[in-house]
Design brief:
205 residues; mainly alpha; 10 helices
Length: 205
């Protein structure tokens, strides 16, 4: 009979740190249950926020060559990984929905406080600082991350017959402002490619 491998001795500090990390990881599993306004490309169901986070990370990995020279792609990927965790408490705020943005910002900040503070103090500070940087969208990394976050949903809508645009009666002017501005700021090459496709779609409606 095979004997189990001997266990290393954990210090009280190591055990406490792992307990906190595992508590955070258990809690953020709830992101899989937060539904977004966007649908899967096959229109079979709504996308959840965990799927969205995975997909835009893949977008960033594939499209990273179109980022500016000052962008650190590894930081962008970390931002995109955690940017929507706050939706566990605050819920999804559709970009084209009728949302009180000031109230939502307060809810999201409170969610960030609760969720990231489940982690050990050093990780809590790092994750919160990265989330704040993404929200501010002032650094090159955050601006590229925001651009990627705004790129994926309209591409999904193009492939799914309009998707959430139909639900919210979206116009091309709204896309120029709400989608085009952040994409053009962080990844102008992507907007130069995407806008003609969007304009062509809306010209046919």
């Amino acid at each position: 009979m095979t004997q189990p491998a001997p266990l290393m001795d954990l210090s009280a500090e190591q055990k406490d740190r792992l307990d906190k990390q595992m508590e955070f990881l258990r809690e953020v599993d709830k992101l899989k249950g937060v539904l977004r306004a966007s649908r899967l490309l096959d229109n079979s169901r709504f996308e959840n926020s965990a799927e969205h986070s995975w997909h835009i990370m893949l977008y960033a990995a594939v499209l990273g060559e179109h980022a500016g020279p000052d962008v650190d792609l590894s930081r962008v990927l970390r931002m995109l990984l955690i940017h929507d965790i706050v939706e566990i408490d605050a819920g999804d705020a559709p970009i084209h929905g009728n949302v009180d943005h000031a109230a939502m910002a307060l809810k999201e900040a409170a969610a960030a406080d609760r969720l990231f503070n489940l982690l050990p103090a050093d990780q809590a500070r790092d994750f919160r600082a990265l989330w704040d940087e993404f929200e501010a969208a002032e650094s090159p990394d955050a601006q590229f991350a925001k651009a990627i976050d705004r790129t994926q949903p309209p591409i999904g809508n193009l492939y799914s017959g309009g998707g959430s645009w139909n639900t919210y009666h979206v116009t091309m002017d709204q896309l120029d402002t709400r989608v085009g501005t952040p994409i053009n700021r962080g990844a102008p090459v992507l907007w130069a490619w995407l806008r003609p496709l969007l304009a062509g779609y809306f010209a046919k409606r």
